[in-house]
Amino acid sequence: MQTYTTKAFNFCSLKTIESPGKHTGKVSFRKARLMLLLFFLVNIYSISYAATGNWTSGVTGGNITYTTTESPSPAKDYNGNYMTVVYLENLGFHKIGGNSNATDVAWLLSKGYRVIELNYANSTKAVTPAINADIIAINDAIFNGSFCGLTNCSKYRAYVLFEGYRISRDVPYFVDDPTVYNYSSTYTIGDSLRMDIIYPANTSVTVPVVLSFSYSNSYPGDANKNQRLNLGNSLAGFKDSFLEGAPANGIAWAMADHPKYCPWGNGKPANATNNKAYGSYETNPDAARKVKSAVRTLRALGAGLGLSGKIGIYGFSRGSTAGSMAVGDRTVPEFENAGFNTGISDDVQAAALGSGVFDYTQIYNASESDAGNLLTNCPLAWGPLASNYALWQSQGSAYLAQTAATAPVLFFYNTNDALYYQDQIKRFKAKLDSLDVPTATLVNYGTGHAVPQTGATLSTVYSFFNRYLTPPSVTAGIQGIKADDSKDKLSLSLSPNPATDEVKIIFSLINSGKAQIELCNPSGTVLYKAEKQYDYAGLQKETISLNKLNLPQGIYIIRVSADGMQGITKLIRGKMLI
C-alpha cells in the first residue's frame, strides 16, 4: 500500500485579506479564493508529490520503508520515462558525504531526478558486499518494468546512489571523429562522448574512483544523442553491481561511453568496401586516445568532486578491451596527443579486467564464433598478420605494457566462457608477470560470460582495489579496537551474523601465505587467536566454534591480518535486534 502526501491549501478556512497599496481595502472571500486557486494552478508543477510504502530487502530479510518523491521539473529519457535515482540511506557503515540526506535528496530533485529513498534504519546487515544483492534486485526490478509500484522509470537512466553521493551526468570527455568507423552515412558531425561520475558531496576526506567503459556503444548522431547507454547490456541489464556498490567501500565510480561510437556490428576503414571490417572490435589510435582522454578528464575534474586522484579501471567484455588500454606504461605519442586535458597524467593505479581481447596477434589460438569474427575482420582492416605484425600488435593493450610501472591487474573469468577469452587473459597475465607487475586471478565465480555477483567474489575485487587505491575507511564504529590506518583493508565477511553455535569467517587473500585470525571483545582483549598458512590466493573460509569458547551473548570483533592487510568486522553472538 502506498501513501501519498502533498502540500495543499485550505481554501475553506481562508479569511479576508488586505490588498497592498496606499489604501487598505478589503478583498471579498470569494475573490480571494479564486486568486489563490489561480496561484495554485499556476504553480502546481512546482509541488513535489511523495509516496511511501514497503520494499522487501533480501539483505535485511524484511521490509524496509521507501519514499518516492517526484521532481517538480522531471527529466525524462529518449523514451519518455523518468530519470530515477534510488537513494540508499541510513546504512550500516560510515557516510562519507557531509550533507544531510534531505539536502542531497533536494539537490537530486532539483536536477530533475525522481528519487526513491530506501531507509535501511542503520541495519548492520546493510554493508559491503551484502548490499550488492539489493542493488541487483533493484536494477532487475527497474529493468523488468516495475519497482516500488512504478512502471515508468528509465531503464538506462536509473542510478543506485549511496547516501552522501551525488551524480555529475553527461560529462564530455572526447569529441568523436565520425570518419573513423564511417557509419552511419548520416553521421557526419562528431558527437561528444560522455561519462557519468558518482562522487561524495561536501566531504572532509577524498576518495579514489573506479572508471568503467560501457559494454557496448552509444547511439551516434543528433537524433539519438539522448540515448546514451540505451542498450540491453546496461548496468541494470547485466546484473553488474560492482560499480554501484563501490561507495560502500569508500570509492567513487564513473561510467563512460564506449570508444567504438557506432552500432557494434558495423564500421569500416576509410575507402573500404566491406562495411563490417570494424564490426567486432575497436581500432587504434582512436580507442586509445578516447580511453586516455577519459582518464585525464576524470582526474582533472576530481579535485572539485572530492576525488583523491587515484583511479582504477574496471572492465568486462568489450568494456574490458577498451579499459585495458589505460593499464600499460608505454608512451605512444599518437595515442597521447588528442582529447581533453592533455597536460594531465593518464596513469591509472589498478585495474580489474574480465573477459576481453588484449593482443590481436594471438586471436588465431582459438577458433570460436566471436573469434571467428575477428579472424574475418581484422585482416580486412590491417592486412594479413604475417606482413603487418607491428600494426596488429599496436592495436592491443598488451603492446602498451612495457615495464613494471604498468598498473597491477586482477583478471576474472569463468572456465566455461569462450576459450579465446581465457587464452587472452593467460597470455596477457604471463607478460605482466614477466615484467614483475602485480597480478591476481579470480576464476569460476559464476557461469559463462558473466560478471562477479556473489558477496564472496565481489569481496575479492573490492579487496584488490582497496589495496592499490587506499580509500578511506567506511567501517562502522567499533569501540576499543580499530584497523591500523597504515595498513590496506582486507575484505572480510561473516556467516551467519548474528551467530549462535559457530561462525564462518570468509576473506580474500591477494597472495598465498600466512593469515592471522583473532576474536576480541569490544575492549580489544583477544579471546581467540589462530595463524594459518594458505597455499593459494583468493577466497578463504575458516570456522570458529562459539560454544567451545563459551562466549556469552553480545558483540565481538573479528580481525583478520595477512600480507600487510587487515580486515575488521563485528560479530553478534545470540539473537539480538539489529
Beta-strand segment tally:
22
Given helix and strand content, the structural type is alpha/beta
Low-confidence stretches: 4-27, 37-48, 477-487
How many helices? Answer: 11
> What is the helix fraction of residues, given as a range?
10-25%
Question: How would you explain this protein's 3D organization?
Answer:
The chain has 578 residues and is of the alpha/beta class. It folds into four domains: 3-46, no CATH class; 50-163, Rossmann fold; 167-469, Rossmann fold (3-Layer(aba) Sandwich); 488-573, Immunoglobulin-like. 21% of the residues lie in helices and 27% in strands. It is built from eleven helices and 22 strands. It has helices at residues 29-42, 101-110, 131-143, 242-245, 286-302, 318-323, 333-336, 369-382, 389-394, 419-434, 455-469; strands at residues 3-5, 50-57, 62-69, 82-89, 114-119, 153-162, 165-175, 192-200, 207-213, 252-256, 307-315, 350-353, 409-413, 439-443, 488-489, 492-495, 502-509, 513-520, 526-534, 538-545, 554-562, 565-573. The strands form four sheets. An eight-stranded mixed beta sheet has the order 7-8-10-9-11-12-13-14, sandwiched between helices. A hairpin with a 5-residue loop joins β18 (513-520) and β19. The longest helix is centred in the middle third of the chain and has 17 residues, at 286-302. It is globular and about 75 Å long. It starts with a strand and ends in a 5-residue tail after the last strand. Residues 4-27, 37-48 and 477-487 have low confidence and may be disordered.
